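Allow me, if you will, to draw on your knowledge of protein folds for a short while. I have a record of one protein: its chain in single-letter code and its fold written as discrete structure tokens. I remain grateful for any guidance, and I place the record below:
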Amino acid sequence: SNLTISSNIESLFISSESTTNISGDIDISGDIFNNGTLNSSTGSLTINGANDQELNGTGFKYLFNDLSLFH
């Protein structure tokens, strides 16, 4: 299945055989659990939680155009 995200979110869980597309400039303040594919090939993805965040999962297929990590 495919999902397109076009606004800021707290956390993200991507199930196996799923693709999530990031559209525009998105902030994620929580964790990312990726068991599928995360595609951010347009716009930007900013990971900017106030606490430690986790990038985890079995998929680890990431396509980034512009990635920023803050803590």
